[in-house]
Design a protein that fits this description.
CATH class of the largest domain in chain A: Alpha Beta
Order of helices and strands of chain B: HEEEHHHHEEHHH
CATH superfamily of the largest domain in chain A: Type I PLP-dependent aspartate aminotransferase-like (Major domain)
Radius of gyration of chain A: 22 Å
Distance between the termini of chain A: 36 Å
Strand order of the largest sheet of chain B: 1-2-3
Number of helices of chain A: 12
Order of helices and strands of chain A: EHHEHEHEHEHEHEEHEEHEEHHEH
Number of domains of chain A: 2
Shape of chain A: globular
Largest sheet of chain B: 3 strands, antiparallel
Distance between the termini of chain B: 32 Å
Oligomer: heterodimer
Low-confidence stretches of chain B: 1-16
CATH architecture of the largest domain in chain B: Alpha-Beta Complex
CATH topology of the largest domain in chain A: Aspartate Aminotransferase, domain 2
CATH architecture of the largest domain in chain A: 3-Layer(aba) Sandwich
CATH class of the largest domain in chain B: Alpha Beta
Largest interface: A-B, 44 and 40 residues
Number of strands of chain A: 13
Largest sheet of chain A: 7 strands, mixed
Structural class of chain A: alpha/beta
Low-confidence stretches of chain A: none
Helix content of chain B: 40-55%
Mean pLDDT of chain A: 94
Strand content of chain B: 5-15%
Number of domains of chain B: 2
Chain lengths: 400, 216
């Protein structure tokens, strides 16, 4: 029976911050008017929604009318890719993205390719998990309509050169080479990284609540003024008709509060997490032979440690860890419905064996040094146990 | 990310398991695994199936009583997920308990028998236990091969249903076991009939057959 509970899956879901919950309470428990209604409760709801929009806009250096509320990261990514590509077909039918985007982007791009006559270039990241800005820019053609590169990868936490791509794409536009705009999925980057749309030079940016200690089921899409989007759903004029449907007022308020808190504590929290992360990574690499860090050692999110332990399978280790009270996640095929191993690890040019043995630990605000020590003490013998019953001995040359 | 954790754990430690208690017992305390390096002639037969690239690899070693052809010892090594480890462990018990199965009986061991003994496995995990009976049959053939009794070797022939995509009935069976229950899903896994639509009616029949065989 587990004696300790160590939650290291914050990249999947982070707990709701109590201050966020407090900010949302009036809109969950109160009259809960509809922001579109002409009465006192309706006005109160509309004021709260506007206020949340203004607060988010000011945090990311945007204007309030550039913030669209959605149901989360997946919808924002879908709206950015599908909505922008469809509304701007006149500019071309070519898309550029990275090979290890979140499925919300990859599958939207795939859908446009399969069903709507678009073509796409998938830029491969380097072995270190970083897409080169040169490669991304080189893929841009006169008929490229949209470039979508994530701010930080969700599995391996590597930080992408979005600002550099944005700056150079702008130059290409100014030179008349292309009309393409830039979207970035900032679901994982939000919180740890500053989201300044001016510095990033993006026209579209995805945020969601659940990864930043905010509510689940709320997200936002920043869409720069003048950027045309075709709606994905119909039935109202909310969110300028681009995302109709009665607004999630409590969610919007919670998202604004969550972003503000992240921004306030960013510097100190990042420093604390980086120290813990590096203790975890360094400790595991030192204690477990035939292990490797996936993704760049420093250009990665402060809370992400993704390692592969060779000669055993990730799901089995995940279950042994769970029994010891440690909750992580894996890129192993066995935990995915498709039974395919992580497309992210494979996109780095690493073999299946590395993907099958990969584990992601994502640290959070409640993670302590004692938690990290507990993982460092608990994990190595579990790997040893699984290796003892495994017939596989992968040669070093395949993964180092 | 593809709901990575949804069915393997929850924060409720009392009812967190996606697997039955019997699966857990065999996963956490695997029985009869080979815990050392072994010389080729030390056992009467060995069998192998899978590869680490496809996510599961399994090897078995058998000691067989030459007179009765009963399996006296069954050792194994598995690279794979929780249910692959548990199903191999439980199969090692099934094959050797009560004086051991005869090779004939062991050859008839079905994935469903192993799964029933485990008290069930999630549908999409079922393919893991299928591996174990295959490795066992591979070892039984090896036993007869070593004994020079080639007439007792059973080759598991598979029939090519799509010559273009080189897809066999066995590939369709695997796809169904891995959870592809519709033509589209099976095509995604095997590419069967893509560019060769004439075979599709036969493929649909096979999918129905395997679906009923494994999932009722």
């Amino acid at each position: 029976m587990a004696t300790r509970h160590v939650y290291l899956d914050h990249a999947a879901a982070a707990p709701l911050d109590s201050r966020v919950l407090r900010s949302m309470r009036p809109f969950l428990e109160g009259a809960g008017g509809n922001p579109s209604s002409f009465h006192g409760d309706g006005k109160e709801a509309k004021d709260a929604l506007d206020d949340a929009r203004t607060r988010i806009a000011s945090l990311i250096h945007a204007r309030p009318d550039e913030i669209l509320f959605t149901s989360g990261g997946t919808e924002s990514d879908n709206l950015a890719v599908l909505g922008y590509a469809r509304a701007n077909k006149a500019n071309g039918c070519h898309l550029v993205t990275s090979a290890f985007e979140h499925p919300a982007v990859l599958e939207s791009v795939g859908h446009l390719e399969k069903k709507e006559g678009f073509t796409a270039t998938y830029v491969s990241p380097g072995r270190d998990g970083i897409v080169s800005a040169d490669d991304a820019i080189a893929a841009v053609r006169p008929d490229t309509v949209l470039v979508s590169v994530m701010l930080a990868n969700n599995e391996i936490g590597t930080i992408q050169p979005v600002a550099d791509i944005g700056k150079r794409l702008k130059k290409l536009r100014e030179a008349g080479h292309t009309k393409a705009v830039l979207h970035t999925d900032a679901c994982q980057g939000a919180g740890a990284m500053e989201l300044d749309v001016e510095k990033l030079r993006v026209e579209l940016l995805t945020i969601n609540g659940g990864k930043i200690y905010g509510p689940k089921g709320i997200g936002a899409l920043y869409a720069k003024r003048g950027v045309k989007l075709q709606p994905l759903q119909f039935g109202g004029t909310q969110e300028r008709g681009i995302r109709p449907g009665t607004e999630n007022v409590a969610g919007a308020v919670g998202l604004a509060t969550a972003l503000e808190i992240s921004s306030e504590i960013r510097e100190a929290e990042n420093a604390r997490l980086i120290a813990l992360r590096d203790t975890l990574i360094g400790g595991l690499l030192a204690r477990v032979p035939k292990s490797r860090l996936n993704g760049h050692a420093t250009l990665r999110l402060p809370n992400n440690a993704n390692l592969s332990f060779l000669d055993m399978e990730g799901e089995a280790l995940l279950l042994y860890l769970d029994a010891a009270g440690i909750e992580a996640s894996t890129g192993s095929a066995c935990t995915s419905a498709a039974l395919e191993p992580s497309h992210v690890i494979l996109s780095l040019g690493l073999p299946y064996e590395v993907a099958h043995g990969s584990l992601r630990f994502s640290l959070g605000r409640a993670t302590t040094e004692a938690d990290v020590d507990y993982v460092l003490d608990t994990l190595p013998p579990l790997v040893q146990k699984l290796r003892a019953i495994s017939p596989v001995r992968v040669d070093e040359k395949y993964y180092v | 990310m593809k709901s990575i954790m949804s069915d393997v754990s929850s924060r409720d430690r009392k009812q967190s398991w996606f697997y039955t208690d019997i699966v857990k017992e065999h996963f956490f305390h695997p029985k009869n695994f080979m815990d050392r390096d072994v010389a080729t002639d030390e056992y009467d037969a060995t069998g192998k199936v899978g590869s680490p690239a496809c996510g599961d690899e399994l090897r078995v070693w058998l000691k067989v009583d030459p007179g009765s052809e009963r399996i006296r010892e069954f050792r194994w090594k598995t690279f794979g997920c929780g249910s692959a480890i548990a199903s191999t462990s439980v199969a090692s018990v099934m094959v050797t308990e009560n004086g051991g199965m005869t090779l004939e009986e062991a050859r008839a061991l079905k994935p469903m028998d192993i799964m029933n003994r485990l008290g069930g496995l999630p549908a999409r995990k079922f393919h893991c236990s299928v591996l174990c009976d295959k490795a066992l049959r591979d070892a039984i053939n090896d036993f007869y091969r070593r004994a020079g009794r080639f007439d007792r070797i059973v080759v598991e022939a598979s029939r090519v249903v799509d010559l273009v995509a080189k897809v066999t009935d066995h590939d369709i069976e695997e796809a169904v076991l891995e959870g592809a229950h519709t033509l589209e899903a099976v095509q995604q896994k095997t590419k069967v009939g893509i560019g060769n639509p004439g075979v599709l009616p036969a493929v649909e029949d096979l999918i129905r057959f395997y679906r009923e065989k494994y999932f009722g």
